[in-house]
Write a sequence for this structure.
């Protein structure tokens, strides 16, 4: 079927997408790499026209050496780890629940998915102003009702609050994918184990969970990539204050707020390397699936 | 509402543009696969994994140089590029499900390549294209890194407008609520239609 003619036609058809993506990837990447070896502070008079000083690996060393680096790594890990644990555990439970035949299943499923479609700036603001506000928030009213001191969520328990907001957004995603995985499970296996008298818990542990393991891996990898880049939620709620400055946010501040391009670019290179490590694993799984 | 209009144009424009560029690419990959097809697909996906913040300044700089900062055109281009891998990928999985025999049959009947595409394949591909359109519209609508960083007042879509309410001074709950509803409602409805495609689009076919 594939003639010489159709091959060259295929190449022509692919060209625009490939060229655009190649440019989108390479040009900024090269620029980031270039800046990361330069001293570039536009606010102090450095400019491309006058030429930038080459500083070698200075920016890389200083980025890691700065006092805000390790806290930002810690904040990133807490957010990524916390959200992963919450969404996977609750996601598995919710998926099991939604898999049960019940009345109004379709409607319930749709409602469970909904948070994923809510614009991140909206959900962050609604959480901030309507749930977590220390005087007017719903949670504050609830705490006062039970005679407890209302918590200043976003300043006292800032990281936990952000984990909560982001989990709320990503739980539907995890649930939906895990549910899809459960539904592809051969029901005969479950029936057979039931015949042999396996209790529900063992069924779950030895049949359902292993069946879901690949879906769980995929969810973990995809979420990690997106969670490493969580931005809007922090931007809107704390603006990076109260220990919620993640690696992404730190780089953003270096580049656009304090305009230290060299330093920020070095941070960007670190972030790219980090994301690529995760991406390699995801690609392996996706690639294997493509062969089938 | 200027912000609503910006959102519609940016999400809609980038999705349409992306589809126009992606359809031929996905098409050729699905129907004339070569040894490199898989590598190209995976490479396209990998561009999606690039953390945006790593290339923030170069893009910012290029935007200033080209006068694209705070313009809808600029955002349409960026949104199109960040969603292009997903669009190509989704279309590819849909196109691959179209049986090749139909093509051969059409060819036997003497259809030219153009006729083949226009009358045989396109009707079969429409559902796939439609769901790709839907999901990517949603993703572009909600995207909040580039829209926050590359717009100021003129081209700001709803994401940026709503984020501007984040300071507690002069907070108007009623206004905020109205804007939020406007930002969520259309997408929620579209989202309900597209939830089946969501799994396919976001796991890149790794979960079925």
């Amino acid at each position: 079927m594939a003639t010489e003619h159709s091959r060259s036609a295929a190449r022509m058809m692919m060209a625009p997408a490939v060229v655009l993506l190649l440019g989108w990837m390479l040009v900024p990447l090269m620029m980031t790499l270039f800046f990361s070896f330069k001293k570039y502070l536009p606010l102090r008079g450095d400019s491309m026209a006058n030429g930038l000083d080459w500083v070698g690996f200075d920016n890389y060393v200083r980025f890691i050496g700065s006092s805000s680096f390790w806290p930002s790594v810690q904040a990133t890990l807490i957010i990524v780890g916390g959200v992963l644990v919450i969404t996977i555990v609750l996601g598995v439970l919710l998926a099991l629940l939604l898999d049960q035949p019940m009345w109004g299943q379709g409607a319930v499923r749709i409602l469970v998915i909904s948070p994923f479609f809510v614009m991140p700036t909206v959900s962050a603001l609604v959480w901030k102003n309507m749930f977590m506000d220390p005087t007017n928030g719903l949670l504050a009213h609830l705490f006062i009702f039970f005679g407890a001191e209302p918590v200043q969520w976003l300043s006292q328990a800032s990281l936990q609050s952000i984990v909560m907001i982001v989990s709320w957004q990503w739980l539907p995603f995890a649930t939906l994918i895990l549910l899809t995985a459960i539904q592809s499970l051969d029901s005969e296996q479950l029936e057979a184990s039931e015949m042999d008298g396996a209790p529900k818990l063992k069924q779950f542990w030895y049949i359902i969970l292993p069946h879901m393991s690949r879906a769980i891996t995929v969810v973990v990898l995809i979420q990690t990539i997106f969670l490493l880049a969580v931005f809007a939620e922090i931007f809107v709620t704390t603006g990076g204050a109260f220990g919620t400055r993640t690696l992404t946010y730190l780089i953003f501040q270096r580049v656009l707020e304090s305009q230290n391009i060299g330093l920020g670019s070095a941070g960007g290179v670190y972030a790219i390397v980090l994301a690529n490590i995760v991406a390699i694993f995801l690609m392996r799984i996706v690639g294997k699936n493509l062969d089938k | 509402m200027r912000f609503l209009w910006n959102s519609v144009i940016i999400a809609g424009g980038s999705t349409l543009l992306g589809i126009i560029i992606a359809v031929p690419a996905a098409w050729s990959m699905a129907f004339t696969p070569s040894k490199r097809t898989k590598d190209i697909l995976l490479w396209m996906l990998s561009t999606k994994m690039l953390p945006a913040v790593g290339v923030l300044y170069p893009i910012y700089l290029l935007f200033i140089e080209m006068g694209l900062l705070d313009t809808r055109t600029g955002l349409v281009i960026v949104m199109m590029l960040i969603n292009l891998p997903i669009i190509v990928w989704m279309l590819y999985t849909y196109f691959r499900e179209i049986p090749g025999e139909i093509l051969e049959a059409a060819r036997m009947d003497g259809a030219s390549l153009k006729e083949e595409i226009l009358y045989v394949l396109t009707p079969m591909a429409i559902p796939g294209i439609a769901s790709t359109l839907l999901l990517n519209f949603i993703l572009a609508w909600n995207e909040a890194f580039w829209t926050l960083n590359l717009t100021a007042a003129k081209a700001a879509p709803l994401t940026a407008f709503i984020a501007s309410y984040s300071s507690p001074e002069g907070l108007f709950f009623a206004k905020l609520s109205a804007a939020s509803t406007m930002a969520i409602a259309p997408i929620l409805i579209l989202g309900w239609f597209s939830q089946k495609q969501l799994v396919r689009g976001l796991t890149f076919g790794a979960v079925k």
Q: What stands out?
A: Residues 38-44+51-291 of chain A form a domain with the MetI-like fold fold (CATH 1.10.3720.10). Chain A has one domain: 38-44+51-291. Residues 4-36 of chain A form the longest helix (33 residues).
